[in-house]
Amino acid sequence: MVERNGGKAPVASKRLSSLRLRVLFLICLIAVPLSVERLLTLLADRREQIRTIEHNVRDLARHATLAQLEGLTRARTVLDVVSLQSQRLLNDPDACIPFATRLANEVAGIQGVFIATPEGDVVCAHAPLAMGVNVADRPFFKEALAADDMLITELFASGLSGRNSVFLLRAERNAGGGAIAVAGVILDLQWLSRIAAGSAVESGVVVDVVGEGGAVLVRYPTQTEIVEHRFPDHPLTRAITATDEGVVATIGYDGKERIFAFNRFEGLDLRVVVGMETARVLAPIDRKILTTAFGYFAALAGFLLVSWFAAERIVITPIARLTRSVAAVGRGEADHVKDNDVAEFAPLVRAFNEMARRLSQRNSELRTMNGRLASLARTDGLTGLANRRTFDVQFSQDWVRARGDGASLTLVMLDVDHFKAFNDARGHLSGDEALRAVARMLSAAAAGTTHLVARYGGEEFIVLMTGADLAAGLAFAEDVRRLLSEVAIAHPAAPRRRLTASFGVASIVPTADDSPDTLVAAADTALYEAKRSGRDKVVAHAERNPGEATGTFR
What we know:
This protein is an alpha+beta fold and about 550 residues long. Helix content is about 50%, strand content about 20%. The protein has helices at about 20-85, 85-90, 95-105, 140-145, 190-200, 235-240, 280-330, 345-380, 390-405, 420-425, 430-445, 470-485, 515-530, and strands at about 110-115, 120-125, 150, 155, 165, 165-175, 180-185, 205-210, 215-220, 245-250, 255-265, 270-275, 410-415, 450-455, 460-465, 500-510, 540, 550-554. Strands 13, 14, 15, 16, 17 and 18 form a 6-stranded mixed sheet that branches. Mean pLDDT is about 80; it is low at about 1-5, about 10-15 and about 545-550.
């Protein structure tokens, strides 16, 4: 649309506002919800698949736990037997050693048996090398003496065999609670690993037996970089140690994303963890989702493409003809909009033609107004002189020319004396009239010259005299001061009882090392000196010898 004030009509620049996309949007309102509904159904199937996987993994973890529990139960039973007979066996080493050896050789799931005194001396053991060894300084022995029940140690390297080992320990106590012996059973980790292998009945399933501190005691399938290593800060370790049992989807010790189910052995800091690789079990449903999505959106894209071309021929082409005709009128290439034989567009064509006639008339008026506005932008509204912006532009241009020609520039800066007191005494309307009177005197003094007279701000004025020297600037300032004195505008609050002004004059021949601000500052300094020395005076900037600086003030 065209604004009533004659401004330009806003032009639609975004494709989202095009008619083609609006037609396609209407089509998408129907097609997209159908596609989304199908995809949501597939995503629901995927979630159901995940729930099924979690249920299966939980069952596998339960079976694996039961399988491992069989071996651990044997080990605990052996520990119970040895612990209950520990006092008798300590008193009969000849019978104890064959007994411990037979247990280590015949009971599946254990690797060895030993009995130690409360002082840590191993008196009975399946291995001759362990006989007579003192383990009082070992952390596991101290923990066993302090524990009230059976405990399982962390994974550690045995000092005798050099192999990683895990002990089940129990301190046998007398009626008074004092320790009389410490019995220990060494778990057979390889046997536990074989049980784990039998539990992994499905392809892609991993089984871990994890001890205290994230130590992986058993791993199937075996991976040397994982089994018998500790992972205390691993996400899987944190997840399985937070509760006794559960299901969690996280990264496994091998770095692969899996769904894990885990169970803790009652009374032991030991967990069986079964994991199923997420990517493998979800691959079929993910492929189905991608295939369905691709098929739906490919069909939608084809339908939208056909709709695009149909809309182009039926709707867009007539509109485009109307648009070109209107644009030709806007560029002045035509004086009316052509009819395009579409009945619905006839009222619009008539409206455009009437608008074109009015716009032509308004454009003529706007050109006149723009000329007036341009003039107002360059002048001060109160005094009719050039404003500060006009002065700054002219000063910059004249500075560059004077620097190239080696010509001089002179500034005359004046400030009405005691102007605030004048406003307070006679009112602001009289103050405005006084400023207009000063402006008239400046204009009269500059008549017939190329000097630029401008209002610099408030009661301050400035005159730019291009090509004039300091003497010409002083003479100009004196003329204005004299004219202001002759007019004798009454100023009740001034010492002389009339309106006066102070003048500062500075002149320079610009060089490449000088700045326009240098000359303005010099004139301002001279004006300040005129104010300081009594007002109603003309003061030139202090003269500088020609060879003292790059620029020459005169």
